Amino acid sequence: MTASPSRRPGVRLVQKVSSTRGFAKVAPHVVPALDRAVHRLTRGKVLLSAQMLPGVILTARGARSGLPRRTPLACMPETRTGGDAVEAGGGGEGAVGSWILIGSNFGRTDHPAWTANLLAHPDAEINWKGRDIPVTARLLAGAERDAVWRALLEFWPPYATYQARVEREIRLFRIMRR
Q: N or C end of the chain: smaller count of CB under 10 Å?
C-alpha cells in the first residue's frame, strides 16, 4: 500500500488549513473551478488538487436534469491485491481496481449534489490520470462503510473534522470499472 498523503512534506499544513471553517466556506467555490480549468488546459493530464490528495473528474448524469455534470473530487484509490481483496491508498504493485468517493462537501451542512446524481444514475465515468474510465457507483452502508471510513481517516484525517461539523452521515461511494 502507498503511504497516505499525510506522510508527504507540506501535507500536514494543508490538512490543518483544510480543517478550518474558513476553508469550508471558500473551498467549494474556488477548488472545483481551479481544478476544472487546469484539467481542461492540460488536456486531462493535471488535476491541481491531486497534487496533495488523489483526485478524479467525475462525469455523472444530473439527478433531475439527466445532463452530464463534471465534478472534480478527491478520492481514495483502492488497489487490487488478488481476488476481491483491496488495499486503500492506490499504490503498491496492483492496478487501481476501485475508488472511494467522499461526499464531505468540505464539512458543509448539505450532501453535495454529485452524490444525489450517483444515487439516481450510478453508471458514470471518471477521468483518472488523464484516462476516461466507465464506472458504476455503489453507496456504502453498515459494516462495509465503517471499515472504509476507518481506512479513509488514516488516509486523510481531516475527514473526521468534516464529519464532526455536520449531523448528516457523510456519504461514501465505491466506484468500480464497468
A: C
Residue-wise pLDDT tens digits, 79-117: 866 655 566 665 544 589 899 999 999 899 999 999 999
Helix (H) or strand (E) holding 27: helix 21-41
Which three cell numbers mark 69?
455534470
Question: E strands within the chain?
Answer: 55-61, 68-82, 85-88, 96-103, 123-128, 131-139, 171-177
DSSP string, 93-129: SSPEEEEEEEE-GGG-SSPPHHHHHHHH--EEEEEET
Tell whether pTM > 0.90.
no
DSSP state for residue 10 in the 8-state scheme: T
